[in-house]
Write the structure tokens for this entry.
Amino acid sequence: MKYDIIGIGYPLLDKVAKVSEDFIIRNGLTKSKMHLISSEQSRRILSMLDEHSVKNYPGGSAANSLATVCRLGGKPLFLGMTGNDSNGNTYCNLINDIGIVSDLKSCDEIQGTCIVMVTPDAERTMATHLGAGTKLTKEHIELNDISNSKILHIEGYQLDGEKQKEAVLHAMEHAKKNNVLVSIDLADRALIERHRDKINMIIKDYADIIFANEDEAEKLTGKKLIEAVEEIKKFCKIAIVKIGEQGSLVMDNNGLHKIKGFKVDAINTTGAGDAYAGGFLYGISHGLDVKTSGKIASYVAAQVVASHDSMINRNLQQEIKNIIKE
């Protein structure tokens, strides 16, 4: 196969800046929360950041997962829609710098951004405008790329737009017909509340690998931990429930596997779940069993938790070789 994993998701340019608490208040935001904002709000906040030092990172759930795959030595491909503007160009350059092959289309909508405002107490307040990412349609999906991949990975947030939902359903249908594994990240509890019927349909008809955290698994199944992962496994080949520093529960046809977490000093949990998915999919795409893939996933997630960034910014190939040997 040409690619290990092909991912479809929102290409969001993360713009990280240190601000005062007054900056948060002046923009009508609630500290330490994530806000979906309009294009007008996004432009206003970005203009106010002109006086601050801003660091740019290529974000979005699927992109973060694929960045982990790349750091581990895998071959990922990223599909999505960027804005035909300076922020869109910055995003594409950053993705290329990581080494992720991309097929990012562009349109005249402004580039999607996630503005991460860090106050002096190290709390993060996020303001996200999806921008051009909402303009992806099934006509933008190159089916040959899916055929030439081992795994198709979809971030659940793609269900929020009607055209995007059509696009990912189109992609998953093609994947199933061509024996390409389909991986779904359920994304967040609120997404399950918004799209329960769609998610149930996708899980039943398409999913081979399902990622959820403890909260999402309970919302989806109405059950706790082991019972929740057992319920999810009824509809897929591999069910994963992440349980933070305690590790994860992974279930396949060989039974339930308890994967321990790696102990680190927690600085930031943003992006840890995405890194976990990337590490696990790297393992599966390279023929490793679910226990070894889970260990890799837990290790890379811990590296994110122990850093200030939402993605891993170094190669991890030697560390992973050691994990595989254990």
